[in-house]
Structure formats: C-alpha cells, structure tokens
## 1
Amino acid sequence: MPQYSWIELAIMLFIIAGFAVVIWRGGQANPESTGRLGSRLTKVETKMTEVETEMEHVRDRLNDFEITLARVSDKMVTRVDLDNIEKLMARDAETSRKTWKAVERLEGFFIENAIKQRSGS
C-alpha cells in the first residue's frame, strides 16, 4: 500500500465528501426526481379544473340573470314613465275640473230657464 501523507488523505477525503454532498443535494434540488414537482403540478391542474367548473357555473347563472333582467326590463316602469303618467293624470284632472264647471253652469242655466218658464206661465 502506498504511503500517503495526512494532507493528501485530507484532500482526497474532502473531494469525496464534496462529491457526496453535490450528489445528495443535486437529488433534492431536482424536484421531478423526488416527485414533488409532479404532485404540485397535479394539485395545480386539479385546482384549475375546479376553478374552470365554478367559472362555467357562474357564467351560466350570469346568463340566466341577464335573460331574467331583459324580461323584467321590458315590463318595468321607469321614472320617466311615471313622470309621463303623472303629467297625463294632472292634465286629465284639469280637464275634469273644467268639464265639471261647465256642467254646473249648464245645470244652473237650465234650472233658471225652467224656473222662469214655470213662473212665467
């Protein structure tokens, strides 16, 4: 067996230890070799599938809501419609008052004429 000095043995031991550390850490640094990357990607894919399913459900509900809103808005009365109805009602009320006054005048005229005709005859 050849004679090595302690320094040479220390250097060889240091080099072998360095290789061991690099191989050991290299295996941990590569997540695919340990399966961590694959499991993480599977979890991400599963979560994305869940999110896509939920988004489709939300999209369907939003479409249903839009259809319902369109149906309701066709039947819904707006503030402008209410203002127009109030204006028409005010105009009709004024016409009714004028008509009632005209009827009262005519009634008074007919009553006066009837009284005059009975008194005069």
## 2
Amino acid sequence: MKKENNVVVKLEQHNSNRSISLEAYEKLAKNFMQILEQVTSNLAFLEVNYWEAFTKYPFRQKYNKWEKIPKLKDYEIHEKKIKADKTLNDLMKLMLKEEDRLSEQLLEKYGVEVLSERQRHIKADAEFEAAEAAKEKAEKEGQHD
C-alpha cells in the first residue's frame, strides 16, 4: 500500500463531516498498540506473581504437575505479592495517565471532548464544588451588606 501525504480517511459517524488525516490515524493506532503491548506484558507478569504468592509454588509448577518442586519460602511469597501489587498500581497509573492524555489531545487537536466515566465524574464533581463555592461566596457577601 502506497502512502500519500494528503490522503484523508473519513470516519463515518451519524451526520458527521469530520475527517482525520491518515498520519494522525496511524499515530493514534501505533500509540494504542504500544499501550496494549505494555498492558499485556504487565498482565502476564501479574499472573505469575499472584499465582506464586497464593499457591506458594513457583509458576513453573502450574504446567508441570509431575515434577516435585519445593514450596516458596514465606519471604519469597511476600516479595512476589509486593511486586505484583506494585506492578498493578503502576499499570493503573499508566492507564489513567494515557486516558487523560488521549482526552486532552483530542480536545486540543480536533476540538472533540471524549471523556471516560472517571473523567466525567471528576468534571461533575469540580462543577458541583465550583457552584457550591460560588453559592457560599454569595451568601457571605449577602451577610456583610
């Protein structure tokens, strides 16, 4: 497939005449694939560490039932769980950061506001708090008069 510079790929939506350049679409897809690869890798790491922490056996025992493998020691079990918890926490932070970055870039570049459920709740809470602060400020100004 030959790539041309001025090719525009239309994303069909209900009554939408918006379009996105092929380069922007390719960049978005590559970024999404990179995120998926990182998540998949971290999930495999989590599986190993949680399996070892909860069964008290090395992961190789999971598929090797006929070989007698000694149990992990208590400190090894705790280390596996701590590593898995840290990886899970880091993965969650990364996903939230990517979610925010994607939302900001879409708004900045295309003027489209795409929010996740978490972002909608944060926005609603901020609007509610701003309204409450304005209401309290108005009440205080009314008392001073």
## 3
Amino acid sequence: MGTAMKLTIDNDFREICREIVAKGEAAFVDSDDLYQQGNFCGGWDEEHGVFAFSFYAPDGGDYIFSLSVEEARVVAEGGSIDPPLKYWKKAPIW
C-alpha cells in the first residue's frame, strides 16, 4: 500500500501555529477555513475541541488532521509534531 504520508511542518504551518497561539482564546472561532496559508487550510472545530486542518500534500491528496492548542504551541516555538494524517480526497487544483 506504500508509505504513509507524513505532515510537512514548513514555515507556512509554523506561522499559522504562531497566529493561533498569539490569538489565545480569540482563536476558538468555529470555522473550517479561518487559517489558510500554503498547503494548509483549517480552523477551530467547536464540536471536538481541536483545530482541524487539511494538508494538501505533494502526492496530490488532501489529508486531514487535528491539532490541539498545546501542539500548536510546540510548533510555534520551533518544535515538531507527528499527527496521524487521514486521506480525505484528491486535493483541489490551485
């Protein structure tokens, strides 16, 4: 079946995480596309209490993953996370 897709933490995603951390509680606006930068699109999922993102991967797939506030803080501070990515659909052509 091949190698599992891994999240690429790039400057775009790190900047999104910095914005989430800087906003604090103001980041918790129920939205699926409040944060859009580079290969990432997502927002706060009120129902599940996490940030939900799409990652438009180099293989052409749209993978979804969730991100906690603490994970956003880790990435914002230069760290790394390895959330499970779930294939959702073929990514839109930009």
